[in-house]
Write a structure and sequence with these properties.
This protein is of the alpha+beta class and 293 residues long. Helix content is 58%, strand content 12%. The protein has a four-stranded antiparallel sheet with strand order 1-4-3-2. The radius of gyration is 39 Å and the shape is rod-shaped.
Length: 293
């Protein structure tokens, strides 16, 4: 169907441009909000990693020295910095059940630290690349998409080998608790595991989706308002005046001298066209009168 109306053509172009702009804005905004959600989640993961490091350093510097004499006669897991960090994070994450922290180890003393499932490939990757200080990525958890951070656990202090070198060198009270089968044979400089933190993206993504819906509805309202406003302006300043000129031209072409006056007010192009047409009508009327005489 051929479109004849100027207003219809204008609306068609406006709608086409609006749809393209709306889609482009939606894609760009969705990408930005999703990236912001990812960055927010990653910040939470890094904050938890810093909390673990802080607990480890505090225990090593403030707690273990106070128990040094007692540790000569009794093994206290609470005095081990890594054990304290794990307990500290587990207490903290009770309020966030979908978060997880683990010192995933290939051959741990405590069975709860054994690297399993998706954690094991991360440890193997860190072992294969000794210069790597951090791995990040995304996985699918029971709560939906989640981001993880994995940092290597490397034996950089010979003091660690007192408990994890040979079983016969380990404290007897430690062997009474954990046995002689696991957590030994570690070597200086070896990557034995990884600090792994997993943080769900559900809440940031839901917030991003809510913001996207609000933004797109607002944008749709703005486009709707512009559509109505521009149509009113086109009608008042263009099509209405063009229709008037068309009616007057029809009247003049049919010899009706009583044709309605043309509105020539304004300084725009249509006002100039109206003045030119009014002069032409006046000249044509005068010429017709001369012919009649």
């Amino acid at each position: 169907m051929k479109i004849r109306s100027l207003a219809a053509k204008f609306n068609l172009v406006f709608l086409g441009v609006s749809v393209l702009g709306f889609c482009a804005a939606g894609i760009v905004t969705d990408t930005m909000l999703t990236e912001n959600a990812r960055e927010e989640t990653m910040q939470h993961a890094r904050l938890l990693m810093q909390a673990s490091d802080a607990a480890t350093r505090y225990t090593g510097a403030q707690v273990t020295p106070l128990l040094e004499n007692r540790l000569k006669f009794e093994f206290l897991p609470q005095a081990v910095p890594t054990f304290a960090a794990i307990e500290h994070l587990h207490q903290l994450l009770k309020a966030y059940p979908n978060y997880s922290y683990k010192q995933a180890t290939l051959n741990p003393t405590n069975p709860r630290n054994l690297a399993q499932g998706w954690e094991r490939p991360l440890v193997e990757q860190l072992r294969a690349a000794p210069k790597t200080t951090e791995l990040t990525g995304q996985r699918i958890s029971a709560a939906g998409p989640a981001l993880y951070i994995a940092r290597p656990i490397r034996i950089q202090d010979r003091a660690c080998l007192a408990c994890h070198g040979k079983p016969e060198d380990a404290p007897g009270t430690m062997l009474d608790i954990y046995g002689r089968e696991h957590g030994f044979g570690w070597k200086l400089g070896e990557t034995v595991g990884a600090h792994v933190i997993s943080v769900p993206m559900a809440v940031p993504l839901e917030r991003a989706n809510t913001l996207l819906r609000t933004y797109m509805l607002s944008l749709l309202g703005i486009f709707g308002f512009l559509f109505v406003a521009l149509n009113v302006m086109v009608h008042l300043f263009v099509t209405r005046r063009l229709k008037q000129l068309s009616r007057v031209a029809d009247d003049v072409s049919l010899g009706r001298a009583e044709a309605a006056a043309i509105d020539t007010r304004g300084g725009d192009e249509l006002a100039g066209l109206a003045r030119s047409f009014d002069r032409m009508r006046t000249s044509l009327t005068s010429a017709m009168k001369m012919l009649d005489e």
